[in-house]
């Protein structure tokens, strides 16, 4: 299978009170087309940093390595170019945007991506029809489309709104940074089903999580253990069960 995403020797730092602090210390990862991969690891292992670097967040400086996305140099692309190419990031803590209508925000984002892909834009009627259909599938109240982005939303509503964005944008590669954080069992199932609905030979995902229960719904193709800025071990879904039973101590000892 072709490699949607290929990461080789990726290193990145962040400014820490005036001096660079290395977070990623040589990440190697291959994700083929059509596969869902999961990353698990203790706090501070670099999981969220990896998601931010892949999506183009400016706070981080890449100091080494390469990232190829469908044959293109991902690191050379601006964040908006990455989005147009099909990269999507669902945040661990979605931000609130007071004064910004949710439906207008979503339609603007969808049409910006469609323009970049030389696809026809959606008018207001077409967009609302699509948005309401996806909201219903995610068990979201359609009234949420009329509210400001994430303002007054519960934790579960914010995460469902992220999955709604993903469903409407139809990315080719989605990064979910602890999207399951703070979700109850029912909301977790809905979010997982939203991701599974996008699975196809032309869609891949990287799911960052602390909880094996999300992976019971998603059934990832591969699970990776990350600690101290690099991938320590990779395996099948059974690796998540091993981590649930044994914790990270053994893997941290290997990384020492």
UniProtKB/TrEMBL annotation:
InterPro entries referenced in this protein's UniProt entry, alphabetically: AAA+_ATPase (IPR003593), ABC_transporter-like_ATP-bd (IPR003439), ABC_transporter-like_CS (IPR017871), FeS-cluster_ATPase_SufC (IPR010230), P-loop_NTPase (IPR027417)
One Pfam family, short name: ABC_tran
Superkingdom to which the source organism belongs: Bacteria
Keyword line: ATP-binding, Nucleotide-binding
PROSITE patterns: ABC_TRANSPORTER_1, ABC_TRANSPORTER_2
Domain ABC transporter span(s) in chain numbering: 5-253
Cited SMART domains: AAA (SM00382)
PANTHER family membership: ABC TRANSPORTER I FAMILY MEMBER 6, CHLOROPLASTIC (PTHR43204)
The family this protein is said to belong to: Belongs to the ABC transporter superfamily. Ycf16 family.
Name of protein: Fe-S cluster assembly ATPase SufC
Gene source species: Rhizosaccharibacter radicis
The organism's taxonomic lineage, starting at the top: Bacteria, Pseudomonadati, Pseudomonadota, Alphaproteobacteria, Acetobacterales
Name of the coding gene: sufC
